[in-house]
Design goal:
There is one protein chain. By secondary structure, the protein is mainly β. It has 2 domains: 129 residues, 10 Kd Chaperonin, Protein Cpn10, Chain O; 99 residues, no CATH class. 6% of the residues lie in helices and 35% in strands. The protein contains 3 helices and 15 strands. It has an 8-stranded mixed sheet with strand order 1-6-7-2-3-5-8-9. β6 and β7 form a beta hairpin. The radius of gyration is 20 Å and the shape is globular. The chain starts with 9 loop residues before the first strand and ends with a strand. The N terminus is likely disordered.
Length: 235
C-alpha cells in the first residue's frame, strides 16, 4: 500500500531470516497491489490519487501470505484466548484497520511485509479452502424486500437485512474473552454451516465485510462476526 500515512512506518532490512515475531504479531508478505489491480478488460480499477485521498477503506490491501509466526499466543486484555490456527504459507485476509496502520518492512530483494496482529486476522485460505480463525464465523447476507410507503409506484428494493446471516464457514470457538464483560461467551453457542442466525443489536444497520467488492478475490461476498454477536439461530 502506498497511502501517505503509511510511508512513515517503513523499516528496511536485508532479509526477514532473522525476524522473529513477538507479542502476538504475524509477519505477512504483501502479495497484492490494489493500485495495479485491473479488470478483465485491462482497465485499472482505482486511480492512485483516489486511493491516497478518500477511498482508503475500499482499496486497502487485506490479503497477505504468512511468512513467520510467534511461538505461541500470549494472553492480552481486551481480546480473547484462542488457539493458534495459522501455518506459514497460509494466505490470510485481515481487518481493514490493522492493514492500514500496520508496520511496513521492506527487504533488499524488493519484497514488502506487514506486521499484522494475530487477533486482526479473520480467515486463512489453505488449499483453496477458507479456515476462519479467532472464533470468527463467515456468513452471507439475508435479503429483504423494501417497498416505499411514500411513492407507491416506485419498484420494490431488495436490500440486506443485517439482523440475520446465513453461516457459510465456522472456526473453533474461542476459549474465553478478556474484555471487561469477561466470561466464556462462545460456550454453548452451537452454530454450523447452513444455519440462519439472528444477531445482536450491533448489526442493525451494517456488518463488517470481509472484502470490498472492488478487489474481491473470493467466490462470495462474505461478512464476519464472532459467536458472541449471535442472539439466536432459526431452527
Amino acid at each position: 500500500m502506498e497511502a501517505q500515512r503509511e510511508r512513515h512506518q517503513v523499516i528496511k532490512v536485508k532479509s526477514i531470516n532473522d525476524i522473529k515475531p513477538q507479542n502476538n504479531f504475524v509477519l505477512c508478505l504483501r502479495i497484492k497491489n490494489n493500485l495495479k489491480d485491473r479488470t478483465k478488460g485491462g482497465l485499472i480499477k482505482v486511480a492512485e490519487s483516489y486511493h491516497q485521498n478518500q477511498y482508503l477503506s475500499q482499496n486497502v490491501e487485506r490479503v497477505f501470505k504468512v511468512a513467520a509466526l510467534p511461538d505461541e499466543l500470549e494472553e492480552v486484555r481486551g481480546y480473547w484466548k484462542t488457539k493458534m490456527d495459522l501455518k506459514v504459507g497460509d494466505t490470510v485476509i485481515v481487518s481493514y484497520y490493522d492493514s492500514l496502520f500496520s508496520k511496513v518492512i521492506k527487504t533488499d530483494d524488493g519484497k514488502e511485509y506487514r506486521m499484522i496482529l494475530y487477533y486482526d486476522i479473520i480467515t486463512a485460505i489453505r488449499k483453496n479452502k477458507l479456515y476462519p480463525i479467532n472464533g470468527y464465523l463467515l456468513f452471507t447476507p439475508v435479503y429483504a424486500t423494501f417497498k416505499s410507503k411514500i411513492d407507491l409506484a416506485k419498484p420494490a428494493m431488495r436490500v440486506i437485512d443485517y439482523r440475520y446471516g446465513y453461516i457459510e464457514h465456522t472456526s473453533y470457538p474461542n476459549y474465553y474473552y478478556t474484555k471487561s464483560y469477561g466470561g466464556d461467551l462462545d460456550k454453548d453457542i452451537d452454530v454450523k454451516k447452513g444455519d440462519t442466525v439472528i444477531f445482536l443489536n450491533e448489526f442493525k444497520k451494517f456488518a463488517p465485510i470481509l472484502e470490498h467488492s472492488i478487489h474481491k478475490t473470493l467466490d462470495k461476498e462474505y461478512y464476519y462476526c464472532q459467536r458472541c454477536k449471535i442472539a439466536a439461530k432459526i431452527a
